[in-house]
Amino acid sequence: MILNIFKTIILGMVEGITEWLPVSSTGHLILVNSIMKLDMSHAFVEMFDVVVQLGAILAVVVIYFKKLWPFRMKGETAVKSQFAHVQTEGAGARFQKFADRYLYMDKVVMWLKILVSVIPAIVIGFPLDDWLDEHLYNAMVVALMLILYGIFFILIENRNRGQKPRVDRLRKITMKDALIIGLFQCLAMIPGTSRSGATIIGGILIGMSRTVAAEYTFYLAIPTMFGASALKLLKFIKNGGGFGGGELLILAIGMAVAFAVSIFTIKFLMDYIRKHDFKVFGWYRIGLGALVLILGFANLI
After folding, report:
1. Mean pLDDT of the region 191-195
2. What gap in Å lies between CA 235 and CA 228, rounded to an integer?
3. I need a surface site. Which of 73, 86, 144, 257 has the fewest CB within 10 A?
4. What is the mean pLDDT of the chain?
C-alpha cells in the first residue's frame, strides 16, 4: 500500500501539471504508467486516470469562483438595472427585477456560452466513448497526436505574430465562438490531443487572445470533465467495480495532489502566456511524441 500511495502522489502531480498545460495528460500518464503502474485492477486504473481529474477541476472552481458564481449574496441588489432596455410590466419586467436582485447577468451569460460549448461533446463524445477507448487508446495514436498538435502550435503562433486579436476580453466571446470552441474540444477525444491544447488552438484560430483562450478553456473544463468523470465512474460501477478502503484512499490522495498542483500550474500558465507564446509547448509535444514512438517501437510501453 505504501508503494501504491507513492505512485498515486506521482500520478496526481502529473495530472495536476499536464491537465492545464497543452501537452496532453494522457500521453504523460501512459509514460508514467509504463514505468510505475498502480498495483490495482485494470478497471480501477482506467477509471482512476479519468476521475483523478476532479481534483484538478476543483482548482479552477477555487481560483475563478468570484468570476463564475452567478448569484448575488443577500443585500447585493444591483444599484441600477443590468438591462439596457428596462421593462416595466409583464413577465419580462418580473424576470429583470428577479435578475437584478439575485443574479449577475454577465456571469449567467458566460455560463450559457459554456453550456453551448459543451453541446458538441455531449452529442458526439458520449456515443463514441467506448469505441474511442477500444480503438484509439494506444501509444502510436498518442504519439502522432502529440507531434501533430505540436506542429500546429508552432505554425499558428508564427501565422499570428504581430496580429491583434479580435477577442481580447471574455465578454466579447459570442455564442458562435462558443460553439466553435466546443467543436474543437471534440478533437480532444482522440488520445494525445490534449483538451486544453485543442480548445486553445481553436480559440486562437478564431481570433481570441492567448489569455482569453486559456481562461475560457479552464471554465469549459468544469462541466466537461465533471461529465467525463461521472461517465467513467458509472461505467466502472456498472461493470462490477467496487470501492474498498484502499481504493477510496488511493483515489482521494490522487485527487488531493492533483488539486494542489493544479493551483500552481494554472497560475503559472496564465502568468507565462501574458509574456510568451505557446511555441515552447509545441516543441515539447514534438519531443515527447518522438519519445513515445521510440518506446512504442521498442515495446517498452
Report:
1. 90
2. 11
3. 73
4. 89
* Nearest residue to 172 (alpha-carbon basis) of 221, 222, 206, 121: 206
The model's pTM: 0.89
Alpha-carbon span 97 to 86, nearest angstrom: 9
Cα distance between residue 37 and residue 29, in whole Å: 9
Contact 36, 9 (CB under 8 A): no
Residue 37 C-alpha cell reads as 503502474
CA 27-30-35 angle, to 5 degrees, is 135
Answer yes or no: are the C-beta atoms of 218 and 266 closer than 8 Å.
yes
Q: Determine the Cα–Cα distance for residues 22 and 229; give it in Å rounded to an integer.
A: 20
Q: Which residue has the cell 441588489?
A: 77
Angle, in degrees to the nearest 10, between helices 25-36 and 2-18: 160
Nearest-angstrom CA–CA distance, 8 and 2: 10
60-115 pLDDT per residue, tens: 999 999 999 999 877 677 678 888 888 888 888 889 988 888 899 999 999 999 99
Do the Cβ atoms of 89 and 258 come closer than 8 Å? no
pLDDT tens string 225-237: 888 888 888 888 8
**125 contacts 230 by C-beta, under 8 angstroms:** no
| Contact of 30 with 139, CB cutoff 8 Å | yes
Contact (CB, 8 A) for 293 and 140: yes
Cell digits of residue 280: 515552447
Three cell numbers, residue 275? 509574456
